[in-house]
Structure formats: C-alpha cells, structure tokens
Backbone:
C-alpha cells in the first residue's frame, strides 16, 4: 500500500487535531480542555498542534481546508434559472448541513457561551461570503447593487439562522431556520413585482 502524500498526511493531521478538539470540548467544555489535552487525544505534540493552529479557538472554528473547494463545486453546479435568489439559496442549502458530524452544534454552543468567539468564527468563514460575492457579481455583472444585496442577504440569513438555532433541536431545526431566514430576506431583481 502506498504511503499517503505529504499533503494528504498534513490534512489528516489537521483533521485529527480538530476532531480531537471538537470531541473534547463537546465532552468537557471549552475551559476544561487544554491544548495539551487536544494534542494528546490527537496523538501528536503541543508543538505539532501549534504548527497547525495558532490557538485552541482556531482549532475549533477554522474551516476544513477542502471546504472552499466543496463550495466552489456547488457554485459551479448551481442552477441558472431566471431567479438568481433561488439559485443562491440552492448554494446556501447545499453547503451548510451535508455531512455535519456535530461540529456545527459544538460551534453554536461555543458562540452562545462565549460571544467573543462570534467574530473569530465569522472571520474564519469569510471565504463563504467571498464565494457568494464572486458568484453574484458573475450572475448580475451589470448591477453591482443587486449583486451586493444578494450576497448580503444570503450572509445575513445564514448568520441569523445559525445564531438563532438551539443545537439540541438537531440539524433539521437549523435547516428549518435557514429556509425561513432565506425566505424572509428574499432579494428580487430591480423592477420585479412586489409581493
């Protein structure tokens, strides 16, 4: 059997450290878990931990290195109908929940318990907003205001659903809140008939 490539090994180590951090914090709580605990649970050293993550918060919130590629794949496969908002909602729904292993719930509990983590979580996931902005600019290139409204409304819906969600309700509850938020902030093109 072939040895994994250096990049595959790095990704495996990165994921192992994050999985250990998520699991330990879910079991014990944020303040009861040290970097040393996470490193030991991941089968690595404190030094290796800091080669991958600058802080314990980063280990909990930094997005998987392959998520940006998954988002780009969704953007590339997105439907192209007469309703840009519906197409953007398709991207949002496809990106948020599939394959969640409980990480989203741990992150939601953490921002509830430590509101100061909200800013870090937002900055760590800024690539989602950038991808939506690029998509919107390409979709409505002659109307930068409409492109910004699409991006801003989708970002606001994602954020509102996440911050309103109570993780004990499961990801189905998050899905429901996201659908409701996306419907509430629907962005129609200029001149579209008001509902």
Residues:
């Amino acid at each position: 059997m072939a040895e994994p490539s250096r990049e595959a090994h790095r990704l495996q180590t990165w994921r192992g450290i994050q999985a250990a951090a998520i699991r330990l914090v879910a079991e014990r709580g944020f303040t009861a878990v040290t970097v040393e605990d996470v490193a030991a649970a991941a089968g690595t050293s404190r030094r290796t931990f800091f080669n991958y993550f600058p802080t314990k918060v980063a280990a909990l919130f930094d997005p998987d290195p392959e998520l940006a590629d998954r988002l780009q794949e969704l953007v590339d496969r997105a439907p192209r109908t007469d309703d840009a908002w519906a197409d953007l909602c398709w991207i949002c729904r496809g990106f948020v929940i599939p394959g969640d292993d409980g990480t989203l719930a741990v992150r939601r509990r953490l921002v509830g318990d430590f509101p100061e983590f909200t800013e870090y979580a937002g900055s760590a996931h800024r690539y989602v907003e950038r991808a939506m902005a690029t998509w919107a600019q390409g979709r409505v290139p002659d109307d930068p205001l409409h492109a910004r409204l699409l991006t801003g409304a989708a970002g606001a819906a994602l954020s509102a659903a996440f911050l309103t969600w109570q993780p004990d309700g499961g990801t189905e509850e998050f899905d429901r809140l996201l659908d409701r938020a996306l419907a509430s902030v629907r962005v129609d093109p200029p001149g579209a008939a008001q509902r």
